[in-house]
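Subgroup meeting minutes
Present: P.N., E.W., G.H.
Scribe: E.W.

1. P.N. recapped why we're keeping a running log of single-chain structure predictions: easier to compare across weeks, and new members can see raw inputs and outputs side by side.
2. G.H. added today's entry (303 aa).
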Amino acid sequence: MQAADRMVALTCMSTLFFAFCITILAADLTAQPAFSGQGDWAPDGQRIIYTSNESGTWQLYSADADGSDRQRLTTTQFNETFPSYAPDGKHLLFLSDRDGNREIYIKDLDGQVCRLTETSEDEFTPAWSPDGKRISFAFNEKDRRQSFLMDVTGENRQRFPAPEYDVIYPKVSLDGTEMLVTARKRGSAFNQIYVMNMDGSNPRNLSRRSQPNYNGDWSPGGSRIVFVSQSPGDKTTAALYTVHADGSGIRKITDTEAGCFQPRWSPDGKRIVFRLGWEKDHVGLFVMDSDGGHPVQITNRLK
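Output recorded in log:
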């Protein structure tokens, strides 16, 4: 059998909620290992933007939702990560270390780039508010990760007031009254998925699992949340779960030998894009139905 024809089978397990069976072609190439991740949907649901390090640094790419018509969007020597489409589809938000530490940038689809933050520490996980008027993000401050909101111009920066928590992955709700966050309460061992009011009050723990939980994302209508949960220190156990915004109906939707990460709902709420595998176990980006069915691989790991 030729090396280019080797097939790698992911062992699949059926659960009450999910049966995930895929067979992946492993390409035998001479390039160094390359990975892709951090997928996000265009507002019309037709394309997915993501990041890949196949060029040697992390760059932004986009492709149709089936993986076809792949295009490279940035060609810098720096690391461009965490991309997301604006709700109007006319701008991209991303992180870059082109000016030193990781800062937040906004890019017009015609190529113009504007820097929104200028700090001495790294920013993390920028996200648009559903109305496209604000940007939420996390920031290292005095050995803690805190979350902030700012205008799309980078002005009027405000701290999300949750002093009892380390807060990352902040995302504003559809009606603008709540924030979805990954948060660890002081004295607690693990991150949990919380929804809080915009003033930090009424924190609701939705994940309620005695292990790390992170990467939460609102469904388009705001009724459900998808997130990652894993055993401590073992990313191969990372699985995707959904839960209703009131904390009911928690459901596991993936069960694979490689971990699942960075889930994002499609604009119509019918599909989820996610990364399968981490580092040496990395496989690529996949799109599946929101209940975990019909997974389709849209990027490959390059070896």
